[in-house]
Design a protein that fits this description.
This protein is 68% helix and 7% strand. The protein folds into 3 domains: 51 residues, no CATH class; 258 residues, no CATH class; 68 residues, no CATH class. The strands form 3 sheets. Strands 1-5-6 form a 3-stranded antiparallel sheet, with no helix packed on it. A 3-stranded antiparallel sheet has the order 2-3-4. Strands 7-8 form a two-stranded antiparallel ribbon. The chain is mainly alpha-helical.
Length: 419
């Protein structure tokens, strides 16, 4: 990963005056003065493999450590924007099997556009739900009518009640947290943050309600999980505000595991090519953006735990707000078709249909990858394909492994059928 710093800080880094902070060889999103050790400012963006990271559920300001109250507040605002979009798209998808036109109205591309519109206050939000006609204005009357039928379906009403309550709790908690961090008395401040965390746990329980989760399709399940992850990140941030860095780090690591487990659940629930077309680009993006930034957040928390008290106080008392305000709206977001969608289209045209499912499982579960490599080697040896050995397969991409697996599996099934 390569961190993007504000222009003045970047110029100082290039001149050797400033230097990015590293922890155990891993870069963190903050720079220091080489001569004095003084903290200069945080990064404002992250690039990985030549592309800017724009996760679905993880705010960059928090994932890069959330070193200060200002930085964390920006992260909370991003979380609010994300959860309103994800919650609304949950309503649009509804319960049961969603029509292809409805899924296309809230796919990865459309969701990213909606989130940006909410952040810029271009769309009204009421009880956690966007104004549908305003949000989908560019998609035509036919799609809007189909979406409105799905939203007001009687079967979704119980879900709507729970989601409204959860969003209300989340919003109250965020507002209360904004006041809590201003309390000077440490005991009272921590008590108020504890109360906020209790509200967040209630909201999380609603979004992660297992009974309601079982009633929805794979795309809707994914959206509900994403809302729950956002709440969990806010809970992690409350511990961080109390300087409980060990707890925050452990919970961040647990969240990474929970996300992977939830994604497998979503893949298992997928019942059609339409489901797969919806979840595939999103799961790829979550793996390549969200989980990567969560790993960086965990590394930042581990680093904060090792900082001497004097340096921690210096970091927390420094004022970086002016730098961040100057760069907050300077990034240009292109709303071309997401690379994950292009990747899906290309993969679908060249691969065995079941390889799409297998690819996702390999991507998020390394033990599955090893099992598939072992299976390919076993089948290859039986067919005297000696080039498919451990060394060569270790260099193979997940795409290649998924396709090789289904090549051999199809042959195996065919042979058993003809016996």
């Amino acid at each position: 990963m390569l961190f993007q710093f504000p222009p003045l800080i970047q110029a100082g880094i290039e001149a050797g005056k400033f230097a990015p902070v590293f922890s155990n060889g891993t870069p963190l999103g903050i720079a220091r003065d080489v001569a004095t050790g003084r903290f200069i400012g945080p990064a404002v963006g992250v690039i990985n493999n030549g592309a800017s990271l724009s996760p679905l559920t993880v705010p960059v300001n928090l994932a890069m450590g959330g070193f200060q109250i200002y930085q964390m507040n920006q992260g909370f605002q991003s979380l609010q924007a994300s959860i309103s979009v994800l919650q609304t798209t949950t309503a649009i998808i509804g319960v049961g099997v969603a029509a292809t036109t409805i899924l296309s109205a809230v796919n990865l591309y459309q969701t990213l556009k909606l989130r940006k519109a909410v952040e810029q206050l271009d769309i009204k939000v009421d009880q956690g739900f966007l104004d549908i006609r305003q949000a989908l204005d560019a998609q035509g009357e036919e799609i809007i009518t189909a979406v409105e039928r799905a939203i007001y379906d009687i079967n979704f009403e119980q879900h709507r009640v729970v989601l409204v309550r959860a969003y209300g709790l989340f919003t109250q908690a965020i507002n209360r947290l904004a006041s809590a961090v201003k309390i000077q008395d440490l005991v009272r401040r921590n008590a108020e943050i504890d109360a906020v965390r209790g509200m967040l746990y209630q909201a999380h329980a609603d979004y992660a309600n297992h009974q309601l989760m079982e009633e929805v399709s794979a795309p809707a399940k994914l959206r509900r999980f994403e809302c729950a992850w956002i709440i969990e990140q806010t809970i992690i941030a409350t511990y961080q505000l109390q300087e409980e860095f060990v707890v925050s780090g452990h919970r961040t690591e647990a969240l990474q595991s929970e996300i992977k487990h939830n994604l497998v659940n979503v893949i298992d629930a997928s019942e059609s090519i339409e489901d797969l077309e919806f979840i595939f680009p999103e799961i790829v993006r979550i793996n390549n953006h969200d989980l990567l930034l969560l790993e960086n957040w965990k590394n930042s928390l581990n680093w904060l735990e090792t900082l001497p008290e004097s340096e921690l106080k210096q970091l927390q008392s420094a004022d970086f707000s002016a730098q961040m305000e100057q760069t907050k709206n300077t990034s240009i977001i292109s709303f071309k078709k997401p690379v994950e969608q292009l990747f899906y289209d290309d993969f679908l045209s060249k691969s065995h249909p079941y390889a799409l499912d297998t690819y996702l499982r390999i991507l998020i579960n390394k033990s599955i990858k090893r099992e598939i490599q072992d299976y390919i080697i076993q089948q290859a040896e039986a067919m005297k394909y000696y080039s498919l050995n451990v060394k060569n397969l270790s260099l193979s991409s997940e795409v290649s492994l998924a396709n090789m697996f289904w090549y051999f599996r199809s042959r195996e099934v065919e042979e058993k059928t003809t016996d």
